[in-house]
């Protein structure tokens, strides 16, 4: 009886890890990205939303640049 429960537990754990691995690999490959939704979202954004998005992107690029410069100075 305990052998059957142990076998069920092991099979359940293996199947769970396989399903998690499949999900993670699919997410990394972009299978869950909805490009049409993103493009439609751009059509309905207000100008203020777009300006704030551009500002945020510029800030991110500036932070990346500063980080690269600080790494170069540390060398």
Beta strands, count: 0
Order of helices and strands: HHH
Helix content: over 70%
Q: In angstroms, what is the radius of gyration? A: 23 Å
Shape: elongated
Domain count, please report it: 2
User: What does the main sheet amount to?
Assistant: none
Structural class: mainly alpha
**Percent range for β-strand residues:** under 5%
Mean residue pLDDT: 86
Helix run count: 3
Which regions have little confidence, pLDDT < 50, spanning 5+ residues?
A: none
Please report the distance between the alpha carbons of the first and last residues: 63 Å
What is the structure about, briefly put?
The protein has three helices and no strands. With 75 residues, it is an all-alpha fold.
Topology:
Layout: H1 2-29, H2 35-43, H3 47-74
Structure characterization notes:
By secondary structure, the protein is an all-alpha fold. It has 2 domains: 1-33; 34-75. The protein is built from 3 helices and no strands. The protein has helices at 2-29, 35-43, 47-74. The N and C termini lie far apart (63 Å). The mean pLDDT is 86.
Features:
3 helices; 2 domains; 75 residues; mainly alpha
